[in-house]
Structures are given as C-alpha cells and as structure tokens.
Amino acid sequence: MQVFRAPEHERQGLLWAASIFCLMWTMQTRQALLGGAALLAAAAQLARADTYHKSPCNVVHWTHMLEGKIIVEGRDPKPIDVEDLFMYEHDLPANHRIIHPFDRESTDRRPDRLTVYVDREGIFLNAFCT
C-alpha cells in the first residue's frame, strides 16, 4: 500500500492556511464569547440594579443621604457651620448597624436592616441591606 505524501512546499502552505484558519476562528470565537459575556454581565447588572432600587431598607435613599457625611454616634451637638457634614446615628432607621474597619460582622442576614460601612474617622463608605 502506497501512502500519498504531498511535496514539502504544499505541506507548508497547508499548515500556513490551517494556522490562519484556526487563528481567525479563535478570534471570531473569542469575540462571540466576549460579546456573550458582556451581555450576561449587563443583564446581571440590570437585575442587581433593579433589586437595589426595590430594597426593603431603602438603601438608595440612605446612600444618597449619607454620601460624604460623618456618622456621629451619640448626641454630640453638630457644629453649626459644618452641619451638612454630619449625620447622627439616631437619624438612621431603627433597624440599622454601623460597621467600622476591623469590626466583626454577624453572619445573620436581614434584608430589611440597613448596614452602613464607615472608615476609621466615621466617614460613610457604603451601605447595603443585610
């Protein structure tokens, strides 16, 4: 039995054509996969945003109210000239907790509870319903 073997220059040409085909196919596949991944990420972000706005603890409102403010725990009087910089803890909803850096956070989840994260100086960082 005789096996047909193409000349060397034809084999090189076939290898070159096959590698170009594979490269083009992988580029198209990568673009399709990235496009699909982008669509999935956008859908997930929309779903997350939808639940974020419908949150039971009204996190959008409180995030807007607390942005850039210092959370004051206790009843110290607010300085009159910088009143917009402070927010008293007692002004937050009844069902809330404030988490400072290195605080232990309980693992119980209550969607109606506003959890406020602050830095070492008490400046608002973020808020979630947990």
What are the SSEs and their pairings?
Blueprint: H1 8-53, H2 59-66, E1 70-72, E2 86-88, E3 96-99, E4 114-118, E5 124-129
Provide an overview of this structure.
This protein has 130 residues and is an alpha/beta fold. It folds into two domains: 7-54; 59-129, Trypsin Inhibitor V, subunit A (Trypsin Inhibitor V, Chain A), CATH 3.30.10. The protein has two helices and five strands. The chain has helices at 8-53, 59-66, and strands at residues 70-72, 86-88, 96-99, 114-118, 124-129. The strands form two sheets. Strands 3-4-5 form a three-stranded mixed beta sheet, covered by helices on one side. β4 and β5 form a beta hairpin. The mean pLDDT is 77.
Please give a handful of descriptors for the protein shown.
three-stranded mixed sheet; 130 residues; alpha/beta; two-stranded parallel sheet; 42% helix
